[in-house]
Amino acid sequence: MMLLVCFDLPRNNKECRKQANQYRKRLVELGFTMKQFSLYEREIRKSSTRKKVVDILREELPDTGSITLYLLPNEVNDRQITILGEKASKTTVRTPQFIVI
């Protein structure tokens, strides 16, 4: 299954931008890949892993932010269609980096 993370973090001052960038970096550390600027995905096979990741995302979210999580079955994710512009590059990494939970 794929865990899709959509988030909205304010960027109206330097401190907010710093927190938003730290949150994005943390998502990558947790094995997520960026689909769009505020949309990240990660394959999750075990419900226990999903619970740990959701708990981490909840704890580390800046006070003024919000996230929405979608759990997508592989059938839905396998049928996605990506349309790229001529100069766009598409790289997808499905294996998470080393993670200590």
TrEMBL record:
Pfam families: CRISPR_Cas2. It comes from the Bacteria. The lineage of its organism: Bacteria, Bacillati, Bacillota, Bacilli, Lactobacillales. The keyword Transcription does not apply. It is an enzyme of class 3 (hydrolase). Its EC number is 3.1.-.-. This is CRISPR-associated endoribonuclease Cas2. Mg(2+) binds at residue 8. Belongs to the CRISPR-associated endoribonuclease Cas2 protein family. Its cofactor is Mg(2+). Signal peptide: none annotated. Keywords: Antiviral defense, Endonuclease, Hydrolase, Magnesium, Metal-binding, Nuclease. CRISPR (clustered regularly interspaced short palindromic repeat), is an adaptive immune system that provides protection against mobile genetic elements (viruses, transposable elements and conjugative plasmids). CRISPR clusters contain sequences complementary to antecedent mobile elements and target invading nucleic acids. CRISPR clusters are transcribed and processed into CRISPR RNA (crRNA). Functions as a ssRNA-specific endoribonuclease. Involved in the integration of spacer DNA into the CRISPR cassette. The keyword Magnesium applies. One of its GO terms (molecular function) is endonuclease activity. The gene is cas2. Homodimer, forms a heterotetramer with a Cas1 homodimer. Gene3D superfamilies: 3.30.70.240. It comes from Enterococcus xiangfangensis.
